[in-house]
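hi! just following up on the protien thing from before. the input was this:
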Amino acid sequence: MSNNESDNPQDRPSQSSSSSPASPPPAAPSSSIPASVREDKKSGWERDVLEKLALFAVKEQRARRRWGIFFRIAILVVIVLGGWMAFTYNKIESEPLGTHTALVEIRGTIESEGQGSAGVVIPALDKAFAASDSVGVILKINSPGGSPVQAGMINDEITRLRKAYPKKPIYVVVEEMCASGGYYIAVAADKIYVNKASLIGSVGVLMDGFGFTGLMDKLGVERRLLTAGENKSFLDPFSPQSPKQREYAQSMLQEIHQQFIEVVRQGRGTRLKETPDTFSGLVWTGSKAVELGLADGYGTVDSVARDVIKAEDVVDYTQTENLSERVLKKFGVAFGAGFAKTLMSAPLSQLR
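and the predicted 3d structure came back as:
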């Protein structure tokens, strides 16, 4: 060992420490971070929030603008369609159509509302008969029946129109079905044409409903009904059926049934070949109906217009809902009437 090494023992650690990599300086305490740096970080966070809020506001504004444009276009389309329909309707009404066969259609259940109601069918029949260029009227029926009141009103109007326009015949054409209330209407026409497989007849009346008294007893539900008048709860489905009320309801059905029978006899006259089953409520095929005198022959709208009325051009006078009615119903304006109808619904006699 040299003297230098022995004389300077402290030099060795310093040399070894100098040869090792330098250690990182200790982190400065937060208190030592300059205030300007802290403010920059804070302002950056606030800037991000403001940018997000601004971007959200822009998106909302764009969405509102798009919806505004959509509604403006929709309103414009409704206005244009309404004007076009009004113009077309007025044009059809004002222009002569030439010699033609007028067509009115009854489709579906005959009731106080809808396409089978007297309020829709009668105005169409009036226009069809009043048209100077129509030489005959075809009433096309596809109906299982419905309200005897509505059917009776249409029947009476056809009878009146036949007297008012004696030279303008009206024929009924049946495709699928003409039963009960539909047939009640059909017998007012001059003739009835069917398909061999059509369903015709069902001269009868029914009143249907349900009774829930047994189910209420099982569920432990108590019916609390207060009335003034012993028959005010007539045919209430939640109360036991009264023999007296049942007998009264049956008498009403018999009365309406008799009215139906008289209308059929009056309309068909000597063509009707009565049997014990004629007014029993049975329904027959078109071929059997022709055999029994319930119908007159086979035909379609086109064949009757061409071969019977001798005017093959057919003009449809059937009334449909106008644009405003469809738009109002689409947006639920008719909800109140439908809700009231549901609340006021009760068993009614039906020609079906």
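The first helix runs from residue 3 to 7.
The first strand starts at residue 100 and ends at 107.
cheers
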